[in-house]
Structure formats: C-alpha cells, structure tokens
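USER: My hope is that you can spare some time for a protein that puzzles me. I am handing you a single protein, as its sequence and its fold in token form. Walk me, if you will, through where the backbone shape changes along the chain. The protein I mean follows directly.
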Amino acid sequence: MDQFFQQLVNGLTLGSLYALIAVGYTVVYGIVQLINFAHGEVFMIGAFGALTTYLLFFNGHTGVWILPFMIVGAMCASVGTAVLMERVAYRPLRNAPRLAPLITAIGISVFLQEFIRLFYERPGWTVAAMAGIVLLVAYLIGARITKVPLDHPITKWRDRAPLLAATVFALAVWAVLRLLERDLSIVITLAAIVGGLVVGTAAGWLFAVGITGRERAQAQLQPVAVVAAATGVLLEIAWLIFKEIIGKVEWPTAKQRIPFPQIDVVTGSALQVGGVTIQRSAIFTLVALAICTMVLWYFINRTRLGRGMLAVSQDPDTARLMGINVDRIIVVAFALGAVLAAVAGISQGFQNNNIEFRMGFLAGLKAFTAAVLGGIGNIQGAVVGGLVLGVVESMATQYIPGQFGGGSWKDVWAFVILILVLVFRPQGLLGARVVDRA
C-alpha cells in the first residue's frame, strides 16, 4: 500500500507540472483557436529566467527569501517572450490559414531552443536588446508629452517620424562613442548624453520641418529634445548595468545541463509521512498549481478583463463590436499562459536539480496531451488532464509488468493515452467549451 501511495504522490507531482503548462495551451486556444507549440519553450525560458535572476543578484545564497525574486524573474522572461512572440509572429497571421501559424509555432520553438543553446553563455546580445527597449521607452516618453496627435490615420507616421529620428540618431551617437571607448568614463558618458541630445534634437527637428512643416514642427521641438535626452541617459544606464552586473557574471554554457539553484525550505531533505517519501519540491509544485488555479479562476470570472476574455472566446467579432479590445485580450491570454509556464519551469528545476535548453520540447508535448485529455479550451479540464496524465504515467511505470513497464516506457504510455482520447473521446474528459461562431 505504501508503494501505491508513493506512486500516487509522484504522479500528482508530475501531473501538477503538466497542468501548469497545459493551462497555457488551453487559454490561448480558447481565445484564438491556436495550438501554440512554442509554449514548451516559454516554459523553458521561464526556468532560465529564474536561473539568470539568481546568478545576477543572489549567486551563492540559499535563503527562501530569494524565491519570490526568482519567480518574478522567470515570469518577466516568459511573459516577455510570449508577448513578443504573439506580436511579431502570430498577429500578422491572425487571418491566415490555420496551417501557417502552426508551422510558425514549430519554427519559433526551434529558434528559441537554439538561441538559448548558442547565446546564453554569451550575454553580448543583451546590449542590442536593451538598446531596443531604450528606443521604445524614449519614444513612449515623447509620445506622452507631445501635443501633436500621433494616431491620426493619415498623418500618424509623419508625426511620429521626428520622435523616431531623435531616438535613432541619439543611439547612433552613443554607439559610435562606445565603439571608441567601452570602459565606463564620466567624460564619454557626458559626451554620449550631450552629443545624443544635440544630434538627436537636430535630426528630429529637421525631420519635422521637412515632413510636417515649420509650424507643426514647432510643437514637436520639446518632445524631440526630451526623447533625444532620454535615449542618451537610458542607454548609459543600460551600459552601466551590462558592465557592472551582466558582464561580470560567469555564465554557464547551455549546451549541457545546468545545475539549478537549491533554495531553503522548498528544496532539501525529503519529508517522510509513514512509508511515503515526499520531496519538498513536490509540495511546492502542488501548492503552486492550487494557488495559480484559484487566482486564474478569480481573474477570469470576477474581473472585467477576465469577462472580456470569456466574451472574446465565445465570439470575437461581437466582442469587438461591444467595445472590447480583442488584440489586448489576446496579449493577456498569452501573458497568463506564460506566467503559469514560468512557475512550472521553476518547479521542474527544483525537482530535477538542473535545466537544459531541450527541456521544453517533451514537457510541451506532454502538456498538450494533458490539455487534449481534459478538453482543449477548458481550463479546469487542463488541470484535471494534467493530474490524470501524471498519475497514469506513474502507475504504468510501477504496475505494468514485463518489458512494457519501467521508466523507459512512461513517455510511450502518455502518448498512447493521447491516441485513445482522440479516437474515443476527442472532446476530452470534461469536454471543450466550443460554440458555433457566426
């Protein structure tokens, strides 16, 4: 009997991990009818985000107070990846045949794996990434203070051009100076800021005069100067962060398994309950699933944004006519799935004591199986499907005799379940919430 309960605990732990990832599949599918096969890599990047946060700020420490910061770091990495993925890869294909976004998702999955494998140990790419973020932030600052309407359907790009020119030319000045002198220096810092301010403002002003006319350009002068100054200051701050924090960390190679940080309370010696051994990481995973499920249920059923998600899932066209921003709802759906995937990534790191760039592929397929098992598009079904899949895997490993049992066959039995569900109950255990759309 102890053996049965031990396998039940193992199965529930494994199933909780699947469920956290599966909810991301089902939330996105419920909104846009898209199977995001790159979601497993969002889970993987969440684990690397947590590891990166630890290496940057807490390397060598094991206090449990570190855990919230690791969770926030994992969520930022996963959400940023998922939102960028939606904006760049999926939104342009919103009205394309369904095969196009499916193939795109597979391509994104491979790209993210290879990106982590090749570039995690070489953080120089973060300079370009931070420069892009700086340009966006500086532009948004200028757009906030300008009195010229930037969203006019006819003149919007002519009105935006001066702000964009100011950021780009300020960035060019900064890049030239930093190529000449990469060490931190007050002289180069002031030259980069002042030079960017002068050149960026001049470029933005000339663009404004040439494109919109002198009178309209007069209203753009102050925002253009602010944008140019903000670009120089933010770029220097980003460079300081790179030189003093990112550049001083000895980054491990992602071409092999990387040890994951061990944190007090949530990792360490296992707990013994009778004859059953319960790992501390298992308790963390089960508690994380319970909390995330309750928070997600409350968000969807009790908040205005959540009710907007329900409306879009039923009929996006009617929801748009009722004033709901469908694009915003879709971004929120990707972000919610990424948050749960980030928590799952940390959980797997604690359970396995290591992470790798390929960890998202098989876990993503298992989570997709769990989502189909419970009913794709049904959040409660995804949770139930994940738990059932984990328990079945664990029990099959233990109790199926002969050459078809054992740990080497657990993946086989997981996909056997997927085939059986698709054949005999394609709507899943709880059934998908599907409505006819006009």
About this structure: The mean pLDDT is 89. The longest helix spans residues 2-32.
